[in-house]
Specification:
16% of the residues lie in helices and 44% in strands. The chain is of the alpha+beta class. Strands 1, 2, 3, 4, 5, 6, 7, 8, 9, 10, 11, 12 and 13 form a 13-stranded mixed sheet that branches. The chain is globular, with a radius of gyration of 20 Å.
């Protein structure tokens, strides 16, 4: 191979690698949404524990709220109190109060699995709040989520929205989770409750709540649709 041609080939390979790396990086607007990610705490039976992740949001009617998963709070609705904190400042807790929630067990997961909290103190303002998306993403669209591990700095995970789950050959599974969203993404314990983000018109917004996952194929996260 002539030297000039080998240099051109090497340059092309380099461009392909750089393009692939650039494509894998999240938009800067998504990276900035880290400030909307919080840990969700519960105080019950005299003990405090971090139970899930969640996201500061703006509801479609403009209210500042905190969003997590319904199954995270299901056992503590009548016996627990809830707080949120950020991984960068775990000793500063802000009280939140459940306003609306739903979770009817994994046998009826597609009924919904979300919890919406209001902030107990009117003086508390989250550093960043994400709008709720007016529409779901398209299959193959890149999506993101700031998730656990519990009590640590959130990790930004990148995935692809795969569409709604359906199981035509398994009526029992179809009845339980048919119609829920699925994202090809990797998670960790504590990911439940994380808001799942898409880009819409150049701005990030939350379209669902990370509530579960598959450990075998298909490998990814189950998404609960939001109540709006």
């Amino acid at each position: 191979m002539k030297p000039r041609l080998s240099y051109l080939l090497a340059a092309l390979v380099g461009l392909v690698i750089l393009s692939a790396l650039a494509a894998s990086l999240p938009p800067n607007a998504v990276a900035q949404t880290r400030a909307a990610a919080y840990n969700l705490w519960v105080m019950a039976s005299g003990k405090a524990a971090i139970i899930c992740t969640g996201t500061a949001i703006l509801t479609p009617d403009g209210k500042e709220r905190f969003l997590s998963a319904g199954h995270c709070v299901d056992d503590f609705i009548y016996s627990g109190r809830f707080w949120i904190s950020q991984g960068s400042d775990p000793h500063t807790l802000h009280r939140v109060v459940i306003e609306r929630w739903t979770f009817n067990g994994i046998q009826n997961w597609n009924d919904g699995d979300w919890a919406v909290f209001r902030y107990a103190s009117p003086s508390f303002k989250p550093l960043h709040s994400l709008n709720v998306c007016p529409a779901k993403p398209q299959p193959g669209e890149p999506v993101w989520s700031w998730t656990g591990p519990l009590g640590m700095e959130p990790i930004l995970r990148t995935g692809l929205y795969s569409g709604e789950l359906h199981f035509p050959d398994d009526p029992e599974t179809e009845e339980a989770i048919g119609g829920m969203g699925f994202v090809d993404i990797e998670g960790a314990p504590g990911s439940s409750g994380s808001g799942v983000i898409r880009m819409l018109n150049g701005k990030p917004c939350v379209f669902g709540v990370w509530v579960g996952g598959f450990r075998e194929r298909p490998n990814g996260a189950i998404i609960s649709w939001l109540p709006w």
